[in-house]
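Quick one: structure tokens for this chain, please?
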Amino acid sequence: MRYLSLKYGYAVCAALLISCLHLQAGAVKVTDYSQPYMEQSLGSNDMTAIVQDQDGFIWVATHNELARFDGHGFVPVASERSSDIFHGGNLVNTMKITSDDILLIGTSRGFFRYDIRNDRLVHTEKTDSLKIFAMEHTAEKDCWFVNSDKGLLLYDSPADTFTLLREYVPAAVDEPLTSLKSFQIGLDGCLYFSDSRYLMKLSHDM
């Protein structure tokens, strides 16, 4: 009898848990911005990076286009800007927005700055050989940690300068060059990362 009571109790708990899960799932609203319903759609469905600016607009990068989503449709930037970014099949891997509305664009072939207010694109030529994977905001205003195939960098947006913090060195000569495996700003404001072998922390007193 006790076994049956326990079994019944487990069944009730399971039913309650499933009900809670259904309630939580029902509370989540997903809006599908499928292209057929857009006033203006993108030329490609393959989005590689998304970021929101201070005015609430969503900026998206695809395999061949940079565009702003205003809630009704996608407004692409001028074709000559896109051609500069995506020339030769270049891919956008990450995007961030600065406090003065500069869109920072990390790609497989370097770093770009797009001035949203003035529709001006600048390619930082000294980063041509860099493959940039991700960026994280530091405790300093408009400074960013940059995860690249060459190592961990610090980017100062106002000065438009990069500083190498830690070079990525393969453990063996034949080891492929890859990005840092993990990249996260902690609650203490420090950067935690891994270079395939160890967990490391970058403190403010760098």
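The longest strand covers residues 161-167.
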